[in-house]
Design a protein that fits this description.
The chain is an all-alpha fold and 135 residues long. Helix content is 89%, strand content 0%. Helix 1 runs antiparallel to helix 2 and helix 4 packs antiparallel against helix 5. The radius of gyration is 20 Å and the shape is flat. The termini are far apart.
């Protein structure tokens, strides 16, 4: 069993455990969060296991996937899509934080959101400076 497959199986089992714990705690505060997190983890890991199984059965498809993972054009398209998603996210986060503040949520929740937003920009600037020095 490959390391990736072992991680996916472990993630599937962990997701199942989280779902069961979430079901067992219906009135508890974190029951719904655990249920959602476990279901998402189970779905993601099951999809990755299924995709790996399908690719392993078809040698032509496996070759095509390997080529696409290393193809410069596909890497560029993926990076471009991530950059556009980053730009789009930064139009959504400030109004969301404003709504949170108007909804009078706990201050620590608002500060965590602001912190995540700031960390995102710091990471952007770190990579920006790194790339400009390389070029």
């Amino acid at each position: 069993m490959t390391a990736q497959r072992a991680r996916d199986v472990a993630g599937l089992i962990l997701g199942l455990v989280l779902v069961l714990v979430g079901i067992a705690l219906p009135e508890e505060r974190f029951g719904g969060v655990l249920l959602g997190l476990g279901a998402g983890m189970m779905g993601m890991c099951a999809a990755r296991l299924y995709t790996g199984w399908v690719v392993a059965k078809d040698p032509k498809l496996a070759k095509q996937v390997r080529i696409e993972e290393k193809d410069e054009r596909m890497v560029y398209i993926n990076s471009f899509a991530k950059a556009k998603a980053f730009d789009f996210l930064h139009f959504l986060v400030p109004p969301f934080l404003l709504v949170l503040s108007l909804a009078k949520v706990r201050l620590w929740i608002l500060l965590v959101g602001v912190g995540i937003y700031v960390v995102d920009w710091v990471v952007y600037f770190i990579f920006y400076v790194k790339k400009t020095r390389e070029m």
